[in-house]
Amino acid sequence: xxxxxxxxxxxxxxxxxxxxxxxxxxxxxxxxxxxxxxxxxxxxxxxxxxxxxxxxxxxxxxxxxxxxxxxxxxxxxxxxxxxxxxxxxxxxxxxxxxxxxxxxxxxxxxxxxxxxxxxxxxxxxxxxxxxxxxxxxxxxxxxxxxxxxxxxxxxxxxxxxxxxxxxxxxxxxxxxxxxxxxxxxxxxxxxxxxxxxxxxxxxxxxxxxxxxxxxxxxxxxxxxxxxxxxxxxxxxxxxxxxxxxxxxxxxxxxxxxxxxxxxxxxxxxxxxxxxxxxxxxxxxxxxxxxxxxxxxxxxxxxxxxxxxxxxxxxxxxxxxxxxxxxxxxxxxxxxxxxxxxxxxxxxxxxxxxxxxxxxxxxxxxxxxx
Amino acid sequence: xxxxxxxxxxxxxxxxxxxxxxxxxxxxxxxxxxxxxxxxxxxxxxxxxxxxxxxxxxxxxxxxxxxxxxxxxxxxxxxxxxxxxxxxxxxxxxxxxxxxxxxxxxxxxxxxxxxxxxxxxxxxxxxxxxxxxxxxxxxxxxxxxxxxxxxxxxxxxxxxxxxxxxxxxxxxxxxxxxxxxxxxxxxxxxxxxxxxxxxxxxxxxxxxxxxxxxxxxxxxxxxxxxxxxxxxxxxxxxxxxxxxxxxxxxxxxxxxxxxxxxxxxxxxxxxxxxxxxxxxxxxxxxxxxxxxxxxxxxxxxxxxxxxxxxxxxxxxxxxxxxxxxxxxxxxxxxxxxxxxxxxxxxxxxxxxxxxxxxxxxxxxxxxxxxxxxxxxxxxxxxxxxxxxxxxxxxxxxxxxxxxxxxxxxxxxxxxxxxxxxxxxxxxxxxxxxxxxxxxxxxxxxxxxxxxxxxxxxxxxxxxxxxxxxxxxxxxxxxxxxxxxxxxxxxxxxxxxxxxxxxxxxxxxxxxxxxxxxxxxx
Lengths: 369, 521
Prior knowledge:
Strand content of chain A: 15-25%
Strand order of the largest sheet of chain B: 1-2
Radius of gyration of chain B: 24 Å
Oligomer: heterodimer
CATH class of the domain at 40-301 in chain B: Mainly Alpha
Number of strands of chain A: 10
Helix content of chain A: 40-55%
CATH superfamily of the largest domain in chain A: Periplasmic binding protein-like II
């Protein structure tokens, strides 16, 4: 008796699942607010394609930058922000083959191997390929992604702070471990920040796999402050920027000094911050067509646009990075104050992919806790 | 079980069951079956994991003990004395519990000296702040069920006040202390936002570690293994709390005695005044510091930020988005919560499993659920990954367990005699439900709706995961603005935080004025 009732209940449940399921699908198909690009089968949209460009949170190009792309191709672009670069790649890896968008912007050289192993991208050789930075192109074997910008993660220091005290600013990584610079350095954590990761890789490139641990022990004894993200390090703890921090040395970008100059009012006579050229680690960012997109051709056109002159020339003053397209002209102000090291530190993406977890684990146990 | 509604309750149970199966169980099973690998279990034995588990546990234990220590004296005065502003004090200390994590996080960053930023101490202070009001309420309610006669007897027999407290009151409060303690431990054990904002990179709980494993290291399988271990701990604790919860519920309907009297001597007055003032100060200090930052730009008072948040189209849009989602959450979670509460109370004891099923969204780590949702709703006709709907649905999932637990005690404690009488008088069961049960439930429904609103307004974890461009809510906007340089922009973040504080105060006001049974306060 009891058993029969149970069975009856289950029948009810299943029946209602079926009813609810069909209701739900009816609702979603007619939902006017559904702006997902993956719903392109909807007849209302068939005349105009809207591409979804997945990007990290700090992707802030000029507001109307895609207007001319829409004008040329008739394709609209919608940007979907998906957390930081790490989150972006994790989510894309889980949905590989049935992506949440059509094009992904923001895989960098530390994440590249992971992204390629997960088969996120559908290879495409952009028509701008020959204009793109040689060394950046070499990082991609089969055109899975195209390099879109490069930048350098370097030590920045507060010029006035060092001048006032008549102390020489640190010019090498080695110098940071000396007692002169005790309690002066603030670093974003490599666990939670891509610039922090780049800095950790710089120390590995400089001191080797055997020496970098010891170096960080010294930094720790020397009072290095490790914070969550670059924003917090640069804007809160660093003394040379708008924050009221009390640490005059920070891990930031080679292009941070122009940002300080260009967006300051009133403009200072000399740059308030400077870069230690020998401490720079080269970051390269890539964009690619996501495998499984329903608009492969349009997505390829967008890659051409992202690597093209117009978009590339927008990058220096909006994202504060160097265009990957060598034909793109750089604004004079940007050139004047930013620093481009001749021989930046670098580690092979495959070596990074192989050791990333171990290195971060070592860092966590040795330095953080 | 109530026979008159028995048939209907079979149908009622379907709605919450489907909602949970579709939006929680299926996504979680899906992500587990897709991503987990057996060798990831090795992760559980690494020193990193051991450190994380150890830190998670000890900070939760310390936080719980501290919360209880702070809450008992406050409960002592609210349960025993009548004084000016008593009701106000009870409302006020409840505010932190419903404040958005982001708001409390930035408030403490502002208030605490920089020397204790990024420390375990900062995390524990915030945990105490969040939870002590809830604990005061739980203990104070139980305290008022202790017959004052017991105190009189003990005193007549010559027991000192301390002895009375230790040998009579405390043993009687033990059960409520234990269930309140378990609840707080659970909150602190699974804490995410507070740890991320105040703990800095060195402090990691299991919940934050799940995030790092999945997002920063790209090891989803490892993250799932961690989330299983968390699930086990939390699951056991939840079982314990629901067990205690049921024994407690027997007391819920118990008579509340009028223990409350005017303070009799100067000593008592001083005791009450000092506790009341200190707790008021403790609640207000972080909030005031937020308000202060919203109108202070470089030592000068400036209302520019306030002007901006109502005129800037992007910020104003997030305001309307938040309101829209709050309304959606109120409607949906109150309905489903009502259905499951009714099913559990009216229906056969088999439906008790709903208690556990609806607790799932809270038990499963947000990252696991978020990843599950992303990979589950990705085939037509339920390709919702881009749809705005996912975020308010996530808000509802978080709100339903709370809503259900607010509603169910009121109908459970309703004496059957009332229903019998109405049935004898010829009322249909629908009439009976509408005129008796629904009437009695009204205050609880209002409370539930208000709390659902607070949950939706403040939800951050799942939202940050499911957000698309153009549907940022206020907490997401706060975190985005705080990431940008410049004092004027930061002030805007604090202005939004102030708005959310005002909303939470208003919600508590509504709850305490219209919502709860007055006797229970």
